[in-house]
Every structure is written in C-alpha cells, then in structure tokens.
Please model this.
Amino acid sequence: MIRDITLGQYYPGYSVIHKLDPRMKIIVTMFYIASLFIIEDFYGYVLIVLAVAAITAVSRVPVRFMLRGLKPVMIIILFTFVLNMLMTPGTILWQWKFIKITEEGLYNAVYLALRLILLIIGSSLLTLTTKPMKLTDGIESLLKPFKKLGLPAHELAMMMTIALRFIPTLLEETDKIMKAQQARGADFESGGLLKRAKALIPLLVPLFVGAFRIAQELAMAMEARCYRGGEGRTKLNALKFRRRDAVAVLLTAAYIGILIAERVLL
Amino acid sequence: MEIEKKNDNSIINIRDLVFEYTREEDDGVVCAVDHVSIEVPRGSFTSIIGRNGSGKSTLAKNVNALLLPSGGSIIVDGYDTADESVLWEVRRRVGMVFQNPDNQLVSAVVEDDVAFGPENLGIPPDEIRTRIKDALNAVDMYEHRKMAPHLLSGGQKQRVAIAGVIAMRPAIIIFDEPTAMLDPQGRGEVMNILEKLHADGITVVLITHFMEETIGSDRIIIMDRGEIALDGTPREVFENTAEIEALGLRLPFAVEIAARLRARGVFVPQGLLSMRELADDLVARKEGAR
Model:
C-alpha cells in the first residue's frame, strides 16, 4: 500500500498551465495572493472567482481536486466566519440575549471566508499543476539572487530533491520495522493516546538510526559521482522563459490592473 | 601532478598501500589494508574476493579517493589519489557502484538520477541528454526513464545506478558487491552488464564474495586480513582448493565437484571452472571410454 503514495498533490497533465515555467508560476501565485487583499467589494470577488475559474478550466484539473485542499482548513474558515459575524459592532440585524449579528459583521465574515477559500484554491493550483521537482528547481532559481546574502539556495533545493526521493524509501523502512516489531508482539493500535505514543518509541529509534545510515551511504555515493555543491554544475532541465510565460506575465499584469481600476473607479 | 609512468599499460597502480583506522569502541588502531601492491592493466577485468572484513571494500574506496591511504600510494591513470588538487580528475575516471541500490540514487526520477553525475561534471544539457540515452540503453532501462526509483525492482535500481556511472564515461568502474542485495535474476542482469562493459573496453574491478561471479575475470585477487592471499588467473587461483577453503571461501560449484570427483578417484583435469565445461569434459570422457 505504501508503494502507491503520491508525493505532494501533483495532478499529471499536459495543459499550458502545467508547462509554464515554475518560477513564473510561483511569482504569479504571489501576485495573486496579494491581489486578494486589494479588492474590497463584491465586484472584485467576482473578478477573482472568474480568473481562478478560467485558469482551472485551462489546466483541466478536476474541481474536486481543487476543493480537496480546503478540507483540512475548513474548521479555521468556519471559526473565523462565526467570530467575525458575531464580534463586529454595527447595525444589528438579529439579536438573541447577548448574541447579535450585525450587517457589517455578516459582510466581513463572508468576505474573509471567501478570501481564505480563494487563497487556498489559488495556491493549490500551483502545486496541482507543478511537479515537486520543478517546484524545487523554480525555488532554487528564484532564491539565487539571495545567495550573496548567505542563503544556501542550491543546498536547500538539493535537500528537497533528496527528501522527495527518500520519502518512499523511509516509509518502506518504517513498514519493515513495524512488521518486525509486530512479529515480536508489539502493539501499535490499541490503548490510549499516551500508550500508543509510547509504542512508537521502539519504532522511531531504529528508523532514525536507519536514516543516518542511509544518509551516510548516499553522501558517499554522491561524492563518488563527483558531487561538490552547486559550483560549476549544469542542469539537465534548465528552466527556460518561453513565449507562453511572457503571455502569462501580460495576463497577470492585466489582471492586477483591472483589480486596481475596479477598486479606484467603482 | 606530473604523470609518472612505470608501466604504460597499467591504469591503477597501487603501491604498498596501508590503510589504518581507529576503532570506535576502544580507540584501537585497525589495519584494514596491510602493504598491498596491485597493478591493474587498462581494459582488464579484475575480481577481488574475500570474506567480510578482509579489506576488499576499503581497498576499493581508496582507489576512488573516498578514503585516503595511511601509507603507500595509488596512482589512477597518472593521478595520485592523495593529491587533493586532482581529486575530481580521479573521481571522474573511477566510477563506483555500491551494494545497496536504494542508497545511491539521488533523484525521484530515473533520468534525472542518471543526469546527476554529468551535471556535477558541468556537461552541457544537450550532451547530458545523449549520454542519458546511451547509458540507459546500455543497461536496458531506457523505457523506464520517467519512472520513480522506488517503483523499480532491486535489479532495475542497480541497473539505473550503473547507468548513472556509465553516463560519466569513466575509464574504470569499481563494483563494490553490486549483487549482494539482489535476487538471482537481478544478479544475472547486473553480471551481464558488467561483462558487456568489460567487452566495451572499460577497466572493471569487481569486489564480491560470490566465487561464481569471478570465473569470467582476467584475474582474481583473494584478500584475507588486509593482505593478498592468492593472486592469479581464475585457473591458477582455483587450483589451490584447500587453501581457498581454509580462507573461509566457497569454491565455484564446478571446481568443488571436480575436486570431490578427484577425491573419489575419478580423473578430472584441472582448470574446469564452469558447470558447462565440467559437464562437457565428463561427457566427452565417458564417450571416449566407450
């Protein structure tokens, strides 16, 4: 069962959105997040929803995949919604003893919840359409200018690459240790939280030892293959800024422009 | 770093190598390799065999400058491994394939992993692409180039690891117990590739404890407690049946059967190493007697 795990939440596809330069996608996503805080009224939200819907349609990622990302944060969204609704002072719409809902509160609550939902959906569009490896390449490339400030861009990217590679290997290792412990009567499933947490200790110790052994062997294998950090290294899949990326930049600029115009003019 | 050539034909020149390390438990000094000298001719296939702790893996890691000699020297294709300024010249000439196929693959995609070595060498992307294609074709894994390594079998992973080394175009490939963790099928696949690489002119050094795998080599070196116990062609080495068994090693199956037949008074000539040779000889003898 462990063999089937998918890393990250990449949805394989061949759309234009999938093919865009990851650097561009990361930057556009950042602008998109900023744009959520430009708008203030109903028409602004309509514009953003339309934009997200259009990109989703082009990317051909099924909507249920997009919505899946919302599940873990649903509680936070509901919580902020209720809190905003009840705590904002203003014209009272409805009252029961000390609980009152105000008009302003309702507006605030709806807008904030929408903002959060759009934030999650927008950023999952990035991870759904970009392979983790490409995302790593993109981050490395974007962080490069900060190298002078002492930021180890290449090392961070290499760490992410290796982490992605070894997650399944470590899961297999965990599975093996668990089975070995279960064969000798270990019980990981019953008992209270504390008991179950305690049962994990004999699992974690060999797992850590194993991870260090793997790290040592891998480091030696990497050295044997002439690895010496990012200096003088070439890349098989060098990122290239293509025409479609330029089009995406123009569209993003237009999008931001329209949002600002909407806020200023309406 | 000037090239020092004693023998033009030798590509690895191990002279009086000593490798010592400090044992962690009691700070005692252990001598893993004790005054060993070996010359490996260009394009040859050398097997180094010995039981655990005989120093064979330590010897291999010294050739690739992963470990540095405590005494003596190793010259690889004219470069001294102890000279740090030529470290990368040494490592790009000596490829290494390790025992555990899982712990030597770096990337989550097969072709990216094969690209790792050439990327480190600073090869332009277009050339890396042709090298990946050649290397993966050489190990028959080209159609798996987009796969994730954890979905491959042990033998397939080891073949990808070999492709990663081939893509660096080394003159020498050292296989450090490459089949120890594989099933019989994977073992066969790896051995076939190894023989093919040798046929293509690459100098092959195979570290193993499977006697069967050494039969095809030009030379067998048996190590014991950091020293060379036996050294010669397979035929020469396997004549010393009693000595090999005393070293705690198993003879190749055919050699062992021949020895037992001889002990029972059946005449079997020396130097029959594979089951096929032995069977052919016995059949011919039986038919001749008729």
About this structure: The radius of gyration of chain B is 21 Å. The first strand of chain B starts at residue 10 and ends at 22. Residues 1-6 of chain B have pLDDT under 50 and may be disordered. Strands of chain B lie at 10-22, 29-41, 45-49, 71-76, 79-80, 94-97, 172-176, 203-208, 219-224, 227-232.
